Amino acid sequence: MEKIFDNTKVAFALKSDTELDRAYFLFKMIDSEPLVRIGTAVTNFALKAHLPVEGLIRATVFDHFCGGTTEMDCLSVVDKMYTKGVSSVLDYSVEGKEEEEQFDAALEMTLKTVEFAKERKAIPFAVFKPTGLGRFYLYEKIGEKQPLTLEEQKEWNRVVSRFDLICKTAYEKDVALLIDGEESWMQDAADDLVTEMMRRYNKEKSIVFNTLQLYRWDRLDYLKKLHEQAKAEGFFVGMKLVRGAYMEKENKRAEEKGYPTPICESKEATDINYDVTMSYMMDNLDTMAIFAGTHNELSSYKVIELMKEKGIAKNDDRIWFGQLYGMSDNISYNLAEHGYNVAKYLPFGPVRDVMPYLIRRAEENTSVAGQTSRELNLLKTEKDRRKADKR
Description:
Layout: H1 8-11, H2 17-30, H3 33-48, H4 54-65, H5 71-82, E1 87-92, H6 100-119, E2 125-128, H7 136-143, H8 150-173, E3 176-179, H9 184-201, E4 208-213, H10 219-233, E5 237-242, H11 247-257, H12 267-283, E6 288-293, H13 297-309, E7 319-324, H14 329-337, E8 342-348, H15 351-367, H16 371-390
């Protein structure tokens, strides 16, 4: 198969020389685990102490990984990427909130992004995190089948109402909706709620998408059971497939609480799990739609191969590839160049509130073997190519 992801001219066509240098510097920093640890601690301290560091954060890590501080802020980035055929998913990346007013604010922002998506071809999906609409503790308690107090039940009813309002609005406006996956010990409650939304709003096609984190060994079985339910009850299954973002936290909690880790025993086992699950979905496209969220080149090539084998058009609306903004441009832009459906997750929000997301990104890049060195190699290749062109 043609190795399309090595073309750095296409991958970085939108980056100026200055932006290329900044990206290279940033990934050099992220490549050092001690620097990430120190940088995280210093940044957290500076923000808590209300030191004037937001400008510095904005000029470096924020602008590389985020679209802006507001949804309007993001539009120039959205339009720029779309000139190369890469769509956007506006992701309000404010994490770790606990108050009802904050959940209502997240609800309003998500509804606004659904409206944005309805109005713009360049934004084919909306997205939200379950814990953006309700307390983590509630999901955890429900997942463990613990009885709720009267107040907690009222609180949970509000969470369900927020979910339903977003999903119903997405359905009415014909906007596909991605619902992110989170930690395993809150995910059961979220899964049940998302399944209910699929039952209500995926009657004609996949509008509501759940997320499978395939570093979990139990997710393919979960998908198969959901698929049987969908066939029996007459609804479509939409799934975003990712490897996962909470591995260290998952393993640590399992060890502390003395239960078997939900995480696959190795990176290789995770890769196999991802590809087998993808294959299962591709075999059942008559009742499923896929958002292949991956920075893995081999997995992306496997999707391309399966599409060719099955005679599926490159722009079939049931198959999308997705990567995060600021990462794996070699995959995103080269896929778009060859006519595939591609969308970048474009996080936004106030600098201070988005920091937990950015710190998670930096830590994830540091912990995923080869991720940062690959970015550095690609950036260096493009820098060298441009220098040679100028000679």
